[in-house]
Amino acid sequence: MSVALRNAQCVVPVRRALLRRAVCALRAALGASRFDVGLVCASNALMQRLNGTYRRCPEPTDVLSFPFHQVAAGELPRPRCRDEYNLGDIFLGVEYIHQQCRETGENFDDVLTVTAAHGLCHLLGYRHDTKPEWEQMYQKETQILEELNRLTGSRLRPLTAGLF
């Protein structure tokens, strides 16, 4: 299936082919290759609007995920028809992420990929509201990033290391 990527901002250049390939590999590592994913690269203004509307937190953020199915952590959706082979949409706050990378000196493309992995985990029911949930999500992010690292020779790690 496909990864539909839309760049809805013009502030930060995004290497779309690189990001699409990474998300395809991450989706495969999750066992969800049969499912479509929407990926939107968004500005701070759009992320602030979405975050305010859906999370009642009117400020920009790095990632928002909107699952098509409600599943327990780690479960794959069970579509009843072809139109339901969809994990959902991930909005990446690329302007926000870019600003953070400038402050920390981290590689923008790497952080974008790790943030997309985080968003994919949310689409599959992983959360981080409690310490046990965070530990489960961190373990899954580590697992899929290690698979991506094996395929690409990179050394990506989850960004959520200091949450709890």
Automatic annotation (TrEMBL):
Alphabetical keyword list: Endonuclease, Hydrolase, Metal-binding, Nuclease, Zinc
GO molecular function: endonuclease activity; metal ion binding; metalloendopeptidase activity
Cofactor: Zn(2+)
Domain of life assignment: Eukaryota
Protein's UniProt keywords contain Zinc: yes
Pfam families, A to Z: YbeY
Coiled coil: none
Keyword Nuclease in annotation: yes
GO biological process terms on file: rRNA processing
Family in the record: Belongs to the endoribonuclease YbeY family.
Protein name per UniProt: YBEY Endoribonuclease
Gene: Ybey
